[in-house]
Structures are given as structure tokens and as C-alpha cells.
Write a structure and sequence with these properties.
Helix content: 55-70%
Shape: globular
Bound molecules: CO-5-methoxybenzimidazolylcobamide
CATH architecture of the largest domain: 3-Layer(aba) Sandwich
Number of helices: 9
Strand order of the largest sheet: 2-1-3-4-5
CATH class of the largest domain: Alpha Beta
Length: 212
């Protein structure tokens, strides 16, 4: 690991926004690949933050500042991660489930979907099943992409799939799910159309489900 990369990782873990910004800019200038910086520095640092939280060394405020620092890095990488020269693939409605405030993974997936030609309508975090349905009525998406990061909020995905069924919209949209506690088996059990483990896989899945 180069000094620049090492300092990006540490800056994210320490919630040092300026350090992340200058580290990412310097690494890009030195020729580092954006997707490698994303995976090996920004995402790896968030995993470290999660571990520190789990073992009691970090608390919620530390996770929060690290998340802000990560988002700063992500914003710099954004234009480099997406290919803006692709034809429209349809609309995706994306959001994090009710009760869940985690949005970095969702933002990343949204960003990459946008880069692969989808029009992304981001509903944010803490999105209730009925809000997903209401916004689907308004935006007529091909796909609904739902993120959850907590084992306690993952069941909201099933409630969302059910809300689409109740509203008579289940056959008119494809529903894809993802997030750390989600598995292929869980996705099948709740009747989602697909599961993706990360942002890259989410693009492949979205294009397959949207038939583009
Ligand atoms: Co939270 N948190 N957090 N947290 N947090 C986790 C998720 C946790 C694993 C930490 C830990 O204990 N190791 C743990 C969950 C345990 C569990 O349920 N299994 C946890 C907890 C417990 C909590 C609180 C309950 C803590 C508390 O209050 N006591 C609380 C809950 C608040 C709430 O939501 N109601 C809480 C709060 C927070 C903050 C607000 C402080 C902050 C979030 C800030 C924000 O998002 N703006 C935060 C953070 C930062 C984390 C960790 C450290 C990092 C998450 C992250 O951004 N990762 C996280 C530990 C970890 O993940 N290692 C943790 C980077 C991101 C790029 O990855 O989101 O996994 P991820 O997204 C990936 C894939 O999952 C996938 O693609 C992405 C890119 O590869 N993906 C999809 C995600 N969504 C997808 C959708 C798709 C497809 C793929 O299709 C639709």
C-alpha cells in the first residue's frame, strides 16, 4: 500500500474529511485507479470502522464522522466511476428501508446505476413500504432497488414486496435487494426478483432485470 493510499484509509477511519479529500486527489493524480481506491481504501476503511464499533472501541459518533469522510471520497470518485455516454435503460427507484439510516451503499449503487444508463430516483433512507409504492405510481420505474444494512430492518424488504403486491403493482416492476445482511436465499424467500452483493453486481442484475 502506498503512503497516499494508507493515508486515505486512516483518514476515513478517523473521520478526517480534508485528509480524505486531499488523499484521494493526490492518489488520482499519481495514477491510482478509482475503483481500486474505492474498494481497497474507502470500503475497506468502513469495514474497519464496523469492526472497531463491534469491539466497543468506536461508538455511533465515530461511525458517523467516518461515514461523512467516506462520502466525501465517494463524491470525488463519482464522475470517474460512471460512464456518462450510455443510452437510457429506464427508471430505477432506490431507497433504504424503513427504520434504517445507512445510505452509503445505497448511494454507491445508485451512482453506478446512473452511470450505466438508468435514470435514478433516490428516495433516501427510512423509506416506508407505502412510500415506495406511492413513488412507483408517480415515476413508473422498471426497477425498484431496496437497500438494508441492519438485520432488524431487513424484514421491511418483505413488507415492501408485499405492499407492491397489495397495490396490484407486483407484475409491473422488478424488485432487487441488497445490503450487508441480505443473501440470495433471503431475496428468494421474500419474493424479490434478484439480489446483488455489491454495486458492480447490482448493475449486472439491474440490466438483466430491465432487459437492456
Ligand atoms: Co451502522 N451498523 N448502525 N451506522 N454501520 C453497521 C451496518 C454494523 C454492521 C456495524 C457493526 O456492528 N459491525 C451494524 C449492523 C449489525 C446488524 O444488524 N447486522 C450497525 C449498527 C448496529 C448500527 C446502529 C444500530 C448502532 C446503534 O445505534 N447502536 C445504528 C442504526 C441506525 C439506523 O439505521 N436506524 C447505526 C448507525 C450508523 C451510522 C448512522 C452512524 C452510520 C451510517 C451513516 C450513513 O450511512 N450515512 C453507520 C455506519 C457507517 C456503519 C458501518 C460502519 C459502515 C456502513 C457502510 O457505509 N459501509 C457498518 C459496518 C460495515 O458495513 N462494515 C455499520 C460501506 C458501504 C459501501 O457498504 O453499505 O454494505 P454497504 O453497501 C455495499 C453492499 O452491501 C451492497 O453494495 C454496496 C457497495 O458494495 N449494497 C447493495 C448495499 N445496498 C445495496 C442495494 C442493492 C445491491 C447491493 O440493490 C438494491
Amino acid at each position: 500500500m502506498s503512503d497516499e493510499s494508507n493515508s486515505i484509509f486512516n483518514a476515513v477511519v478517523n473521520g478526517d474529511i480534508e485528509g480524505v479529500a486531499s488523499g484521494v486527489e493526490a492518489a488520482l493524480k499519481a495514477g491510482a485507479a478509482p475503483d481500486v481506491l474505492l474498494q481497497e481504501q474507502l470500503i475497506a476503511a468502513m469495514d474497519e470502522v464496523g469492526e472497531q464499533f463491534e469491539c466497543g472501541a468506536f461508538f455511533v459518533p465515530e461511525m458517523l464522522v467516518a461515514a461523512r469522510a467516506m462520502q466525501t471520497g465517494l463524491n470525488i470518485l463519482h464522475p470517474l466511476l460512471v460512464d456518462t455516454d450510455v443510452k437510457s435503460a429506464g427508471t430505477v427507484l432506490i431507497g433504504t428501508v424503513k427504520g434504517d439510516m445507512h445510505d452509503i451503499g445505497k448511494n454507491l449503487v445508485g451512482m453506478m446505476l446512473q452511470g450505466s444508463g438508468f435514470e435514478v430516483v433516490d428516495l433516501g433512507v427510512d423509506v416506508a413500504p407505502e412510500t415506495f409504492v406511492q413513488k412507483a405510481n408517480k415515476n413508473e420505474p422498471k426497477l425498484v432497488a431496496i437497500s438494508a444494512l441492519l438485520t432488524t430492518t431487513a424484514p421491511q424488504m418483505e413488507a415492501t414486496v408485499e405492499a407492491f403486491r397489495q397495490a396490484g403493482l407486483r407484475d409491473s416492476v422488478k424488485i432487487m435487494v441488497g445490503g450487508a445482511p441480505i443473501t440470495q436465499g433471503f431475496a428468494e424467500k421474500i419474493g424479490a426478483d434478484g439480489y446483488a452483493v455489491d454495486a458492480r453486481e447490482a448493475i449486472r442484475l439491474a440490466r438483466r432485470l430491465a432487459e437492456v
